[in-house]
Amino acid sequence: MSRHRAARGPARRGVAKWPFAVLTSVLLVGLVWLGWRYTGDLLERRAAAELASCIEGEETLTIAVTPSMGEVIGQAAVAWGKSHPVVLDHCMRAEVATVAPQAVLTGLTTGWDTKSLGARPGAWLPESSLWINRLAAQDAKLLGSEPASIATSPVVLAMPENAAAAIREGNMFSWGDLPKWVNVPEAWKRYGHPDWGAFTVAVPDLASNPASALAMQAVLASASPKGSGPVTVDMLTAPGVTEAMHGLAVTGPPQVPPTTLDALNVLAGAGEVKTAPFDAVPTLEYDLYRRNVGMDGNVPPMEPLSGVVVGGTTPTADFPFIAIADERVDQLQVRAAQKFREFLQTGPQQLELAKAGLRVPSTKVRPSPSPGIRWASTQEDLTTADANTTQQISAAWTNAGGSGQVVTVLVDVSGSMLEDGGGGKNRLDWVKAALHGQIGRFGSGSMGLWTFSRNLGDQDQPYRQVVGTGPVSQQRLELESAVAGMKAASATFLYPSVLAVYDSALAHLDKDRQNRVVLITDGPDDSQMTYEQFKRELAKRRAGNPDLPISVIAIGPDPDRNELTELARSTGGSFSTIKDATTLETALGQLLSDS
Fold this sequence. Notes:
595 residues, 14% strand
Protein backbone atom coordinates (compact mmCIF):
# COMPACT_ATOMS: atom_id res chain seq x y z
CA MET A 1 0.00 0.00 0.00
CA SER A 2 1.39 3.15 -1.06
CA ARG A 3 2.10 6.00 1.32
CA HIS A 4 1.28 9.64 0.65
CA ARG A 5 3.18 12.67 2.08
CA ALA A 6 1.22 15.04 4.11
CA ALA A 7 0.13 18.11 2.22
CA ARG A 8 2.67 21.01 2.64
CA GLY A 9 3.14 24.54 1.28
CA PRO A 10 5.50 25.26 -1.56
CA ALA A 11 9.08 24.49 -0.84
CA ARG A 12 11.40 27.55 -0.06
CA ARG A 13 14.95 27.71 -1.22
CA GLY A 14 17.54 30.16 0.25
CA VAL A 15 19.10 32.82 -2.06
CA ALA A 16 22.86 33.28 -1.78
CA LYS A 17 23.92 36.88 -0.84
CA TRP A 18 27.54 36.75 -1.91
CA PRO A 19 26.87 37.40 -5.62
CA PHE A 20 25.22 40.72 -4.72
CA ALA A 21 28.12 41.69 -2.48
CA VAL A 22 30.57 40.91 -5.23
CA LEU A 23 28.50 42.84 -7.76
CA THR A 24 28.19 45.81 -5.43
CA SER A 25 31.92 45.84 -4.79
CA VAL A 26 32.62 45.70 -8.49
CA LEU A 27 30.23 48.56 -9.12
CA LEU A 28 31.78 50.64 -6.32
CA VAL A 29 35.27 50.01 -7.59
CA GLY A 30 34.11 50.94 -11.03
CA LEU A 31 32.49 54.14 -9.84
CA VAL A 32 35.56 55.08 -7.84
CA TRP A 33 37.75 54.41 -10.85
CA LEU A 34 35.47 56.42 -13.12
CA GLY A 35 35.36 59.26 -10.56
CA TRP A 36 39.12 59.19 -10.26
CA ARG A 37 39.49 59.28 -14.01
CA TYR A 38 36.97 62.11 -14.28
CA THR A 39 38.61 64.11 -11.50
CA GLY A 40 42.04 63.47 -12.94
CA ASP A 41 40.89 64.53 -16.37
CA LEU A 42 39.26 67.65 -14.90
CA LEU A 43 42.40 68.58 -12.99
CA GLU A 44 44.50 67.89 -16.05
CA ARG A 45 42.22 70.09 -18.15
CA ARG A 46 42.36 72.86 -15.55
CA ALA A 47 46.11 72.58 -15.26
CA ALA A 48 46.41 72.62 -19.02
CA ALA A 49 44.15 75.68 -19.18
CA GLU A 50 46.22 77.42 -16.53
CA LEU A 51 49.43 76.55 -18.31
CA ALA A 52 47.94 77.77 -21.55
CA SER A 53 46.93 81.08 -19.94
CA CYS A 54 50.30 81.44 -18.15
CA ILE A 55 52.40 81.20 -21.25
CA GLU A 56 54.60 84.02 -19.96
CA GLY A 57 55.45 82.12 -16.78
CA GLU A 58 55.24 83.15 -13.13
CA GLU A 59 55.61 86.69 -11.79
CA THR A 60 55.73 88.13 -8.26
CA LEU A 61 53.93 91.25 -7.09
CA THR A 62 55.73 92.79 -4.11
CA ILE A 63 53.49 94.86 -1.85
CA ALA A 64 54.98 97.27 0.69
CA VAL A 65 52.64 97.21 3.68
CA THR A 66 52.64 99.33 6.82
CA PRO A 67 53.90 97.06 9.64
CA SER A 68 50.56 96.93 11.48
CA MET A 69 48.98 95.32 8.41
CA GLY A 70 51.69 92.78 7.69
CA GLU A 71 50.02 89.69 9.14
CA VAL A 72 46.49 90.13 7.79
CA ILE A 73 47.67 91.17 4.31
CA GLY A 74 50.19 88.35 4.31
CA GLN A 75 47.35 85.89 4.88
CA ALA A 76 45.40 87.51 2.06
CA ALA A 77 48.41 87.13 -0.23
CA VAL A 78 48.48 83.38 0.46
CA ALA A 79 44.74 83.11 -0.26
CA TRP A 80 45.17 85.09 -3.47
CA GLY A 81 47.90 82.75 -4.64
CA LYS A 82 45.65 79.73 -4.05
CA SER A 83 43.06 81.28 -6.36
CA HIS A 84 45.58 81.00 -9.23
CA PRO A 85 45.37 84.62 -10.48
CA VAL A 86 46.47 85.22 -14.06
CA VAL A 87 47.43 88.68 -15.32
CA LEU A 88 48.53 89.33 -18.89
CA ASP A 89 49.36 85.64 -19.40
CA HIS A 90 51.43 85.48 -16.19
CA CYS A 91 50.68 83.33 -13.16
CA MET A 92 50.84 85.80 -10.32
CA ARG A 93 51.82 85.46 -6.69
CA ALA A 94 51.98 88.19 -4.06
CA GLU A 95 54.80 88.81 -1.63
CA VAL A 96 54.18 91.12 1.32
CA ALA A 97 57.00 93.26 2.72
CA THR A 98 56.38 95.13 5.97
CA VAL A 99 58.15 98.47 5.55
CA ALA A 100 57.58 101.67 7.53
CA PRO A 101 55.80 104.26 5.35
CA GLN A 102 58.59 106.83 5.75
CA ALA A 103 61.12 104.28 4.47
CA VAL A 104 58.88 103.53 1.48
CA LEU A 105 58.49 107.23 0.68
CA THR A 106 62.23 107.89 0.95
CA GLY A 107 63.12 104.79 -1.02
CA LEU A 108 60.74 105.50 -3.88
CA THR A 109 61.86 109.13 -4.25
CA THR A 110 65.60 109.00 -3.58
CA GLY A 111 66.57 105.47 -4.63
CA TRP A 112 65.32 102.09 -3.46
CA ASP A 113 67.92 100.19 -1.43
CA THR A 114 67.21 96.52 -2.06
CA LYS A 115 69.77 95.42 0.55
CA SER A 116 67.90 97.04 3.41
CA LEU A 117 64.36 97.19 2.02
CA GLY A 118 64.08 94.14 -0.21
CA ALA A 119 62.55 94.14 -3.66
CA ARG A 120 61.16 97.40 -4.98
CA PRO A 121 57.36 97.23 -4.57
CA GLY A 122 54.75 97.28 -7.29
CA ALA A 123 52.08 98.33 -4.79
CA TRP A 124 51.84 100.18 -1.49
CA LEU A 125 49.41 99.96 1.42
CA PRO A 126 50.03 102.60 4.13
CA GLU A 127 47.52 103.45 6.83
CA SER A 128 46.44 106.78 5.40
CA SER A 129 46.19 108.73 2.15
CA LEU A 130 48.35 111.34 3.86
CA TRP A 131 51.31 109.20 2.78
CA ILE A 132 49.97 109.03 -0.78
CA ASN A 133 49.70 112.82 -0.78
CA ARG A 134 53.32 113.11 0.28
CA LEU A 135 54.42 110.73 -2.46
CA ALA A 136 52.44 112.69 -5.05
CA ALA A 137 54.02 115.93 -3.83
CA GLN A 138 57.49 114.53 -4.44
CA ASP A 139 56.87 112.60 -7.65
CA ALA A 140 53.33 112.22 -8.98
CA LYS A 141 54.52 109.85 -11.74
CA LEU A 142 54.96 107.15 -9.13
CA LEU A 143 51.21 106.81 -8.63
CA GLY A 144 50.15 103.95 -10.88
CA SER A 145 46.48 104.06 -9.85
CA GLU A 146 44.02 106.07 -7.85
CA PRO A 147 44.18 105.15 -4.15
CA ALA A 148 41.34 102.84 -3.10
CA SER A 149 40.44 102.31 0.56
CA ILE A 150 40.30 98.69 1.73
CA ALA A 151 39.26 99.48 5.34
CA THR A 152 39.08 102.35 7.82
CA SER A 153 39.89 103.17 11.42
CA PRO A 154 38.73 106.25 13.35
CA VAL A 155 41.07 108.47 15.34
CA VAL A 156 40.43 108.33 19.09
CA LEU A 157 42.17 109.84 22.10
CA ALA A 158 44.07 107.20 24.05
CA MET A 159 44.03 107.84 27.80
CA PRO A 160 44.59 105.97 31.04
CA GLU A 161 41.36 104.27 32.06
CA ASN A 162 40.77 106.53 35.08
CA ALA A 163 40.94 109.60 32.84
CA ALA A 164 38.64 108.08 30.22
CA ALA A 165 36.14 107.05 32.88
CA ALA A 166 36.06 110.59 34.29
CA ILE A 167 35.31 112.03 30.86
CA ARG A 168 32.59 109.49 30.11
CA GLU A 169 30.90 110.27 33.42
CA GLY A 170 31.09 114.02 32.77
CA ASN A 171 30.56 116.12 29.69
CA MET A 172 32.11 114.94 26.44
CA PHE A 173 34.07 117.40 24.35
CA SER A 174 34.71 117.94 20.65
CA TRP A 175 37.95 118.27 18.72
CA GLY A 176 37.35 121.99 18.55
CA ASP A 177 37.34 122.20 22.37
CA LEU A 178 40.88 120.88 22.73
CA PRO A 179 42.82 124.14 22.08
CA LYS A 180 40.76 125.89 24.76
CA TRP A 181 40.81 123.03 27.23
CA VAL A 182 44.60 122.57 27.17
CA ASN A 183 45.01 126.23 28.15
CA VAL A 184 43.00 125.86 31.39
CA PRO A 185 45.36 125.35 34.39
CA GLU A 186 42.83 123.20 36.29
CA ALA A 187 41.03 121.60 33.36
CA TRP A 188 40.37 118.35 35.22
CA LYS A 189 38.40 120.23 37.87
CA ARG A 190 35.33 120.13 35.65
CA TYR A 191 35.52 116.33 35.86
CA GLY A 192 35.87 116.25 39.64
CA HIS A 193 39.65 115.87 39.79
CA PRO A 194 41.22 119.27 40.48
CA ASP A 195 44.39 117.55 41.72
CA TRP A 196 45.09 116.29 38.21
CA GLY A 197 45.79 119.83 37.04
CA ALA A 198 45.95 120.79 33.37
CA PHE A 199 44.95 118.55 30.46
CA THR A 200 47.90 117.86 28.17
CA VAL A 201 47.86 116.22 24.76
CA ALA A 202 50.97 114.83 23.06
CA VAL A 203 50.85 115.38 19.31
CA PRO A 204 53.72 113.50 17.61
CA ASP A 205 55.05 114.86 14.33
CA LEU A 206 52.22 115.40 11.83
CA ALA A 207 54.32 114.53 8.78
CA SER A 208 55.00 110.96 9.89
CA ASN A 209 52.06 110.17 12.19
CA PRO A 210 48.69 110.12 10.37
CA ALA A 211 46.68 110.01 13.60
CA SER A 212 48.23 113.35 14.62
CA ALA A 213 47.67 114.89 11.20
CA LEU A 214 44.04 113.77 11.00
CA ALA A 215 43.31 114.93 14.54
CA MET A 216 44.85 118.33 13.71
CA GLN A 217 42.59 118.64 10.67
CA ALA A 218 39.57 117.98 12.90
CA VAL A 219 40.73 120.66 15.36
CA LEU A 220 41.39 123.24 12.64
CA ALA A 221 38.13 122.48 10.82
CA SER A 222 36.18 123.15 14.03
CA ALA A 223 38.12 126.38 14.62
CA SER A 224 37.64 127.70 11.08
CA PRO A 225 35.02 130.30 10.15
CA LYS A 226 33.06 127.54 8.40
CA GLY A 227 33.24 125.33 11.46
CA SER A 228 33.67 122.14 9.45
CA GLY A 229 35.96 120.39 6.99
CA PRO A 230 37.64 120.22 4.71
CA VAL A 231 40.37 122.57 5.83
CA THR A 232 41.74 124.73 2.99
CA VAL A 233 45.01 126.62 2.60
CA ASP A 234 43.18 129.92 2.97
CA MET A 235 41.84 128.83 6.35
CA LEU A 236 45.35 128.39 7.78
CA THR A 237 45.80 132.13 8.26
CA ALA A 238 42.22 132.78 9.39
CA PRO A 239 41.57 134.10 12.92
CA GLY A 240 40.95 131.22 15.29
CA VAL A 241 42.75 128.64 13.15
CA THR A 242 46.28 129.90 13.76
CA GLU A 243 45.43 130.35 17.45
CA ALA A 244 44.14 126.78 17.68
CA MET A 245 47.31 125.34 16.17
CA HIS A 246 49.56 127.55 18.27
CA GLY A 247 47.58 126.68 21.41
CA LEU A 248 48.11 122.95 20.96
CA ALA A 249 51.76 123.43 20.03
CA VAL A 250 52.81 125.50 23.06
CA THR A 251 50.82 123.55 25.68
CA GLY A 252 52.12 120.13 24.78
CA PRO A 253 54.47 118.18 27.07
CA PRO A 254 58.15 119.26 27.12
CA GLN A 255 59.17 116.02 25.42
CA VAL A 256 56.79 114.75 22.76
CA PRO A 257 57.54 111.17 21.66
CA PRO A 258 58.45 111.00 17.96
CA THR A 259 55.81 108.43 17.02
CA THR A 260 52.29 107.53 18.08
CA LEU A 261 53.46 104.09 19.18
CA ASP A 262 56.16 105.64 21.37
CA ALA A 263 53.55 107.93 22.94
CA LEU A 264 51.23 104.99 23.61
CA ASN A 265 54.05 103.10 25.31
CA VAL A 266 54.92 106.09 27.50
CA LEU A 267 51.29 106.63 28.46
CA ALA A 268 50.67 102.95 29.17
CA GLY A 269 53.82 102.74 31.27
CA ALA A 270 52.62 105.57 33.52
CA GLY A 271 49.45 103.73 34.47
CA GLU A 272 47.38 106.73 35.58
CA VAL A 273 46.98 110.44 34.92
CA LYS A 274 48.86 111.79 37.95
CA THR A 275 52.08 109.96 37.06
CA ALA A 276 51.88 110.40 33.27
CA PRO A 277 53.90 113.10 31.43
CA PHE A 278 50.77 113.80 29.37
CA ASP A 279 47.12 112.79 29.54
CA ALA A 280 46.23 111.76 26.00
CA VAL A 281 47.52 111.08 22.51
CA PRO A 282 45.55 110.82 19.25
CA THR A 283 45.79 107.35 17.77
CA LEU A 284 44.03 105.10 15.33
CA GLU A 285 41.56 102.80 17.05
CA TYR A 286 43.24 99.90 15.21
CA ASP A 287 46.69 100.79 16.58
CA LEU A 288 45.35 101.17 20.12
CA TYR A 289 43.71 97.73 19.96
CA ARG A 290 46.96 96.18 18.75
CA ARG A 291 48.94 97.99 21.48
CA ASN A 292 46.59 96.82 24.24
CA VAL A 293 46.76 93.17 23.22
CA GLY A 294 50.47 93.20 22.39
CA MET A 295 50.09 92.59 18.65
CA ASP A 296 52.54 95.37 17.75
CA GLY A 297 55.62 93.51 18.94
CA ASN A 298 55.60 94.97 22.44
CA VAL A 299 54.47 93.41 25.70
CA PRO A 300 50.81 94.21 26.48
CA PRO A 301 50.51 96.96 29.12
CA MET A 302 49.58 96.00 32.67
CA GLU A 303 46.68 98.44 32.43
CA PRO A 304 45.26 98.84 28.90
CA LEU A 305 44.72 102.35 27.64
CA SER A 306 41.18 103.39 26.84
CA GLY A 307 40.05 104.91 23.55
CA VAL A 308 37.78 107.95 23.83
CA VAL A 309 35.73 108.91 20.78
CA VAL A 310 35.79 112.70 20.57
CA GLY A 311 32.64 114.57 19.60
CA GLY A 312 32.00 116.13 16.20
CA THR A 313 32.99 114.82 12.80
CA THR A 314 35.44 111.96 13.15
CA PRO A 315 38.88 111.99 11.50
CA THR A 316 39.38 108.59 9.93
CA ALA A 317 42.31 106.75 8.37
CA ASP A 318 41.42 105.16 5.04
CA PHE A 319 44.14 102.49 4.46
CA PRO A 320 44.57 103.19 0.73
CA PHE A 321 45.98 100.68 -1.74
CA ILE A 322 47.82 102.00 -4.80
CA ALA A 323 49.89 100.62 -7.62
CA ILE A 324 53.40 102.04 -8.01
CA ALA A 325 54.43 102.98 -11.53
CA ASP A 326 57.36 104.67 -13.21
CA GLU A 327 59.85 103.79 -15.91
CA ARG A 328 61.12 100.87 -13.79
CA VAL A 329 57.72 99.22 -13.24
CA ASP A 330 55.87 97.71 -16.19
CA GLN A 331 52.14 97.52 -16.84
CA LEU A 332 52.01 93.92 -15.60
CA GLN A 333 52.81 95.04 -12.07
CA VAL A 334 50.21 97.79 -12.19
CA ARG A 335 47.49 95.40 -13.43
CA ALA A 336 48.47 92.78 -10.84
CA ALA A 337 48.28 95.38 -8.08
CA GLN A 338 44.78 96.33 -9.15
CA LYS A 339 43.76 92.64 -9.18
CA PHE A 340 45.07 92.12 -5.67
CA ARG A 341 43.33 95.26 -4.44
CA GLU A 342 40.03 93.95 -5.85
CA PHE A 343 40.66 90.68 -4.02
CA LEU A 344 41.11 92.56 -0.74
CA GLN A 345 37.74 94.20 -1.28
CA THR A 346 35.85 90.90 -1.59
CA GLY A 347 33.59 89.71 1.23
CA PRO A 348 35.82 87.00 2.76
CA GLN A 349 38.86 89.27 2.87
CA GLN A 350 36.85 92.17 4.27
CA LEU A 351 35.69 89.85 7.05
CA GLU A 352 39.31 89.00 7.87
CA LEU A 353 40.18 92.69 8.03
CA ALA A 354 37.29 93.25 10.44
CA LYS A 355 38.45 90.39 12.64
CA ALA A 356 41.88 92.05 12.75
CA GLY A 357 40.41 95.25 14.22
CA LEU A 358 39.66 97.39 11.18
CA ARG A 359 36.28 98.74 10.16
CA VAL A 360 34.67 97.70 6.88
CA PRO A 361 31.18 98.57 5.63
CA SER A 362 30.02 94.99 5.08
CA THR A 363 30.18 93.70 8.67
CA LYS A 364 30.09 94.75 12.33
CA VAL A 365 32.33 91.87 13.39
CA ARG A 366 34.94 92.96 15.94
CA PRO A 367 37.83 91.11 17.55
CA SER A 368 37.26 89.80 21.06
CA PRO A 369 38.61 90.29 23.63
CA SER A 370 39.57 93.88 22.95
CA PRO A 371 40.58 95.57 26.22
CA GLY A 372 40.18 99.34 26.28
CA ILE A 373 38.24 99.44 23.01
CA ARG A 374 34.48 99.92 22.92
CA TRP A 375 34.12 99.99 19.13
CA ALA A 376 31.75 102.92 19.63
CA SER A 377 29.71 104.24 16.75
CA THR A 378 31.10 107.44 15.31
CA GLN A 379 29.37 110.41 13.78
CA GLU A 380 29.98 111.66 10.28
CA ASP A 381 33.53 111.18 9.01
CA LEU A 382 35.58 114.33 8.60
CA THR A 383 36.11 115.39 4.99
CA THR A 384 39.88 115.52 4.79
CA ALA A 385 41.91 118.33 3.26
CA ASP A 386 43.30 118.11 -0.25
CA ALA A 387 46.90 117.10 -0.91
CA ASN A 388 48.27 120.65 -0.95
CA THR A 389 46.54 121.74 2.27
CA THR A 390 47.68 118.57 4.00
CA GLN A 391 51.31 119.48 3.34
CA GLN A 392 50.82 123.09 4.40
CA ILE A 393 49.25 122.04 7.71
CA SER A 394 52.25 119.84 8.49
CA ALA A 395 54.70 122.57 7.48
CA ALA A 396 52.86 125.16 9.57
CA TRP A 397 52.83 122.81 12.57
CA THR A 398 56.61 122.39 12.33
CA ASN A 399 56.96 126.11 12.99
CA ALA A 400 53.91 126.65 15.20
CA GLY A 401 55.52 126.25 18.60
CA GLY A 402 58.93 126.35 20.22
CA SER A 403 61.71 127.78 18.09
CA GLY A 404 60.74 126.26 14.73
CA GLN A 405 63.23 125.33 12.03
CA VAL A 406 66.00 127.21 10.21
CA VAL A 407 65.54 127.23 6.44
CA THR A 408 67.83 128.77 3.83
CA VAL A 409 66.17 128.84 0.40
CA LEU A 410 68.25 128.96 -2.80
CA VAL A 411 66.20 129.85 -5.90
CA ASP A 412 67.24 129.40 -9.53
CA VAL A 413 66.55 132.66 -11.38
CA SER A 414 67.99 131.60 -14.74
CA GLY A 415 66.26 132.62 -17.96
CA SER A 416 64.44 129.31 -18.23
CA MET A 417 62.43 130.20 -15.13
CA LEU A 418 60.38 132.47 -17.40
CA GLU A 419 59.16 129.47 -19.36
CA ASP A 420 55.56 128.29 -19.02
CA GLY A 421 55.00 126.82 -15.58
CA GLY A 422 51.40 125.78 -16.19
CA GLY A 423 48.14 127.42 -15.23
CA GLY A 424 48.92 130.61 -17.13
CA LYS A 425 52.01 131.51 -15.08
CA ASN A 426 55.72 131.16 -15.67
CA ARG A 427 57.85 129.05 -13.34
CA LEU A 428 59.24 132.00 -11.40
CA ASP A 429 55.77 133.33 -10.66
CA TRP A 430 54.81 129.95 -9.17
CA VAL A 431 57.98 130.02 -7.05
CA LYS A 432 57.05 133.46 -5.76
CA ALA A 433 53.52 132.36 -4.91
CA ALA A 434 54.79 129.30 -3.01
CA LEU A 435 57.32 131.31 -1.02
CA HIS A 436 54.78 134.03 -0.20
CA GLY A 437 52.51 131.33 1.21
CA GLN A 438 55.23 129.81 3.38
CA ILE A 439 56.38 133.19 4.69
CA GLY A 440 52.81 134.05 5.66
CA ARG A 441 52.29 130.75 7.49
CA PHE A 442 55.69 130.56 9.22
CA GLY A 443 55.31 130.95 12.95
CA SER A 444 58.42 130.71 15.09
CA GLY A 445 60.89 129.52 12.44
CA SER A 446 63.72 131.30 10.63
CA MET A 447 64.19 131.75 6.90
CA GLY A 448 66.76 133.21 4.52
CA LEU A 449 66.66 133.76 0.75
CA TRP A 450 69.39 133.42 -1.88
CA THR A 451 69.14 133.53 -5.67
CA PHE A 452 71.53 132.18 -8.29
CA SER A 453 72.13 132.42 -12.02
CA ARG A 454 75.30 134.09 -13.38
CA ASN A 455 77.05 137.36 -12.41
CA LEU A 456 74.55 138.24 -9.69
CA GLY A 457 76.91 139.21 -6.85
CA ASP A 458 79.11 142.24 -6.30
CA GLN A 459 82.20 140.38 -7.55
CA ASP A 460 80.35 138.67 -10.38
CA GLN A 461 79.51 135.67 -8.22
CA PRO A 462 76.68 133.60 -9.66
CA TYR A 463 74.75 133.84 -6.38
CA ARG A 464 73.44 136.57 -4.09
CA GLN A 465 72.17 136.56 -0.55
CA VAL A 466 68.94 138.54 -0.76
CA VAL A 467 67.82 138.21 2.88
CA GLY A 468 69.97 136.73 5.63
CA THR A 469 68.57 133.80 7.57
CA GLY A 470 66.67 135.04 10.61
CA PRO A 471 63.35 134.84 12.47
CA VAL A 472 60.48 135.20 10.02
CA SER A 473 58.44 137.07 12.60
CA GLN A 474 61.09 139.83 12.59
CA GLN A 475 61.68 140.06 8.85
CA ARG A 476 58.44 138.96 7.28
CA LEU A 477 57.99 142.16 5.28
CA GLU A 478 61.61 142.08 4.11
CA LEU A 479 61.22 138.50 2.91
CA GLU A 480 57.93 139.30 1.17
CA SER A 481 59.51 142.27 -0.62
CA ALA A 482 62.57 140.24 -1.65
CA VAL A 483 60.44 137.44 -3.09
CA ALA A 484 58.30 139.91 -5.02
CA GLY A 485 61.43 141.51 -6.49
CA MET A 486 63.04 138.34 -7.84
CA LYS A 487 63.81 138.61 -11.56
CA ALA A 488 65.11 136.11 -14.07
CA ALA A 489 68.68 136.47 -15.32
CA SER A 490 70.66 134.11 -17.57
CA ALA A 491 72.45 130.79 -16.93
CA THR A 492 72.29 128.18 -14.15
CA PHE A 493 75.52 128.17 -12.13
CA LEU A 494 74.22 125.55 -9.77
CA TYR A 495 77.22 123.87 -8.14
CA PRO A 496 79.20 126.93 -6.94
CA SER A 497 75.98 128.49 -5.66
CA VAL A 498 75.04 125.44 -3.60
CA LEU A 499 78.52 125.40 -2.04
CA ALA A 500 78.27 129.08 -1.11
CA VAL A 501 74.87 128.65 0.54
CA TYR A 502 76.08 125.53 2.32
CA ASP A 503 79.06 127.44 3.71
CA SER A 504 76.77 130.20 4.99
CA ALA A 505 74.26 127.78 6.51
CA LEU A 506 77.05 125.88 8.29
CA ALA A 507 78.49 129.11 9.66
CA HIS A 508 75.12 130.07 11.15
CA LEU A 509 74.01 126.57 12.17
CA ASP A 510 71.65 126.44 15.14
CA LYS A 511 72.36 123.12 16.85
CA ASP A 512 69.16 123.30 18.89
CA ARG A 513 66.90 123.45 15.83
CA GLN A 514 66.27 121.66 12.56
CA ASN A 515 68.47 123.27 9.87
CA ARG A 516 68.06 122.73 6.15
CA VAL A 517 68.97 124.15 2.74
CA VAL A 518 66.21 124.13 0.12
CA LEU A 519 67.18 124.26 -3.56
CA ILE A 520 64.59 125.11 -6.24
CA THR A 521 65.85 124.72 -9.81
CA ASP A 522 64.67 123.99 -13.34
CA GLY A 523 67.89 123.18 -15.17
CA PRO A 524 71.29 121.44 -15.15
CA ASP A 525 74.49 123.16 -14.04
CA ASP A 526 76.08 125.55 -16.58
CA SER A 527 79.24 126.39 -14.64
CA GLN A 528 82.77 125.17 -15.32
CA MET A 529 82.69 122.95 -12.23
CA THR A 530 82.11 119.27 -12.90
CA TYR A 531 79.80 117.19 -10.77
CA GLU A 532 82.74 115.15 -9.45
CA GLN A 533 84.50 118.35 -8.38
CA PHE A 534 81.34 119.55 -6.72
CA LYS A 535 80.94 116.28 -4.80
CA ARG A 536 84.52 116.47 -3.53
CA GLU A 537 84.10 120.06 -2.38
CA LEU A 538 80.82 119.26 -0.65
CA ALA A 539 82.38 116.24 1.06
CA LYS A 540 85.14 118.46 2.48
CA ARG A 541 82.55 120.79 3.97
CA ARG A 542 80.51 117.98 5.46
CA ALA A 543 83.50 116.27 7.09
CA GLY A 544 83.49 116.91 10.82
CA ASN A 545 80.40 119.13 10.72
CA PRO A 546 76.84 118.41 11.91
CA ASP A 547 74.42 117.07 9.34
CA LEU A 548 72.87 119.76 7.16
CA PRO A 549 70.32 118.33 4.69
CA ILE A 550 69.99 119.76 1.21
CA SER A 551 66.50 119.15 -0.15
CA VAL A 552 65.80 119.68 -3.82
CA ILE A 553 62.73 120.57 -5.87
CA ALA A 554 63.35 120.04 -9.59
CA ILE A 555 60.91 121.66 -12.02
CA GLY A 556 60.39 120.19 -15.48
CA PRO A 557 62.46 117.64 -17.42
CA ASP A 558 65.79 119.48 -17.68
CA PRO A 559 67.43 119.11 -14.25
CA ASP A 560 69.77 116.14 -13.90
CA ARG A 561 67.60 113.91 -11.76
CA ASN A 562 70.32 111.39 -10.90
CA GLU A 563 72.77 114.03 -9.69
CA LEU A 564 70.19 115.94 -7.67
CA THR A 565 68.80 112.76 -6.16
CA GLU A 566 72.29 111.75 -5.05
CA LEU A 567 72.87 115.25 -3.63
CA ALA A 568 69.70 115.06 -1.55
CA ARG A 569 70.26 111.47 -0.41
CA SER A 570 73.91 111.98 0.54
CA THR A 571 73.10 114.94 2.80
CA GLY A 572 69.95 113.47 4.36
CA GLY A 573 67.56 115.67 2.40
CA SER A 574 64.63 114.85 0.14
CA PHE A 575 64.21 115.04 -3.62
CA SER A 576 61.03 116.17 -5.36
CA THR A 577 60.42 116.32 -9.08
CA ILE A 578 57.40 118.10 -10.55
CA LYS A 579 56.23 118.12 -14.15
CA ASP A 580 55.39 121.81 -14.08
CA ALA A 581 55.35 124.47 -11.38
CA THR A 582 51.63 124.29 -10.53
CA THR A 583 52.34 121.83 -7.70
CA LEU A 584 55.39 123.64 -6.37
CA GLU A 585 53.59 124.89 -3.27
CA THR A 586 52.59 121.32 -2.40
CA ALA A 587 56.15 120.05 -2.90
CA LEU A 588 57.60 122.87 -0.81
CA GLY A 589 55.09 122.29 1.99
CA GLN A 590 55.85 118.58 2.02
CA LEU A 591 59.57 119.27 2.16
CA LEU A 592 59.29 121.76 5.02
CA SER A 593 57.08 119.41 7.03
CA ASP A 594 59.86 116.83 7.34
CA SER A 595 61.22 116.76 10.85
